[in-house]
Automatic annotation (TrEMBL):
Zinc in keyword set: yes
Gene Ontology MF terms: nucleic acid binding; zinc ion binding
InterPro entries noted in UniProt: Znf_CCHC, Znf_CCHC_sf
Designated name of the protein: CCHC-type domain-containing protein
Coiled-coil portions: 443-473
PROSITE patterns: ZF_CCHC
Keywords: Coiled coil, Metal-binding, Zinc, Zinc-finger
Comp. bias intervals (Basic residues): 301-310, 386-402
Disordered: region residues: 301-442, 564-587
Domain CCHC-type: 237-252
Amino acid sequence: MATAMQVTVEGEDIGPAEISESAGWITAFSRRKSTSSRQTLQPCNVPRGANKGAAPASVRKRLTAASRLPRLPTEHFRVIVRPRGGLDIKKTGHFKIAQALIAAAGLTSGEVEEDVICPNMIQNIMVASTPSERNAKAYNTVASLIIDNVTYEVNAYMAAPNNTSKGVIRDIDPTLDQDELTRLIVQPRNPTVIAARRIKSTSSVIVLFDGLKVPEYVKCGPSLVKCSLYRRQTDICYACGRLGHRADVCPSPEDGICRGCGTSNPDDQHNCSPKCALCGGNHLTASRDCKRRFQVPYVVRQRRRARRHQKSQEAHDSTGAEPLPPKSAISRRSRSSETRGNRYRVLAEDNSPSPGRASSKDKGRSVSRGRKGYKPDSRSNGRSPSRSRSRSIGRSSSRSRKLSVSIQEPAEQGTGPTWADRVKGQTKKVTGGTPPEHSNTRVAQLEKENALLKREMQQLRAEIAELRNATKHNPVQPPAPLQYVEDEAPMEVPVEEASSERPAKKRAIVDSACSSSAMKAKSEIKDAIESLSITVGAIKATLDGLVEGFSSLSLRHDELEKHVFSMSQTPDPTKGKKTSSASAEQTAAASRGIFYDQLAFNHNHGSKPQAD
């Protein structure tokens, strides 16, 4: 029983040694409990993990990598065709075998337009992938192929659906037929079970589950049976002694080697010290004593990858380090190019493959095993410099071109470039092309200055509006004259005795202190009125200066916009124009400086600004 368990294509191939002689897993497609939506057809010429970095470290990894098929559409039906009778797919040619398979299935060229038939040279099998269930059943009924008038027997069976996993239950009554076995295992109490197949006439049964999770126990009728994860064995041919294929599809059974030492065509008296090619132990290659004869199941690899990704994510959250990708990233390599004697290289970004996945050396261009003289640059400087061309996956940098524009000088009327000027290449007319880069820089600088002037004008407008509002709501009024009431001192009127004579008139007595205080108050009021009138005049002069400055600044802004518009419409010459633009810039800066100095002077001295 142990020798009957064989390795096939990962996730696809289940050999006849694992199932009965029925139609394979064809009923599993209709019994899937969770039907995923149809995906877009993927290209079938993309290998799965064949070129993932450095060379594998063991024979088992090399075999696993070489036996992988191209990426086929996940929603297709897949039929495995195993040729017998010594048919060598590599020597015969897979195209000829594919044509013979289509003819044996009774299909026309129009019916197989969407089908994909590809070989597996290592396992010496053919895989037919089709979206049509009718075509899949037709391929599944093929029993022989006729190639070059020679008939070869084949064994065709349906592969397990995609996104499924397999488990093994043991000690099942061998007398149960296939229908009774299906009735006992495929039941509502096992919601994820799709199908069940017995391994030949043994008591072990392979159970197919929907999804990538195998339960620990399975109900078989009323009994609860322990279920273990199914593990594939590495293919070993007992006819020729080579790894990679099985004896029923051996292309050269007459050319054998020793499984212990590798000697070609050993005789019956051959005696050697065996050494396993998988683990290096003192036993035959892939024997029952070999600890590496089983492959790591796909479900286990997925779980390990998920754990590594979770740990790296936790490390990233705690330390801030860069987390590892959940899958082996596709390596990106770029080709180096040499231009005018200078060689520039681009970094080849190559992530190491995850454990358990096969990888192979890709033309010696990986980072760890680069070819001689290869010096990877930093990722930030991945592009090639000017005048060179480097190609990489998804991105290429083109050669930079030098732009030149000839200067247009004022020529006489009716005269043009002479023949000598054309020969020398010294034409005076503009020959077109893109303007120089400095003209664009100059236009951008002028636009920045224009925006700055606009902001300054808006600020000035806001200040003027505030001043006008202040003068309207709070007009300056001269203060009312102060009125002082003179305190008259009481006068003593002498009482005269009555007499017959009339007294003479007396002059009124004026207090000298009261008259001096009144004069002082009047002088202070006069001084206050004069200072207030001076202040009001200064404010009016400042307002007039701001209005005139704003009008002149508006004129300069209009002239600057006209200048920028004219520069954007006409190409900027390489020479001559630099001096004129520089002088214009200096003049504008000087005028702005004079205007700001005038404003400061007017603000400090209260005089009216002079017109430019």
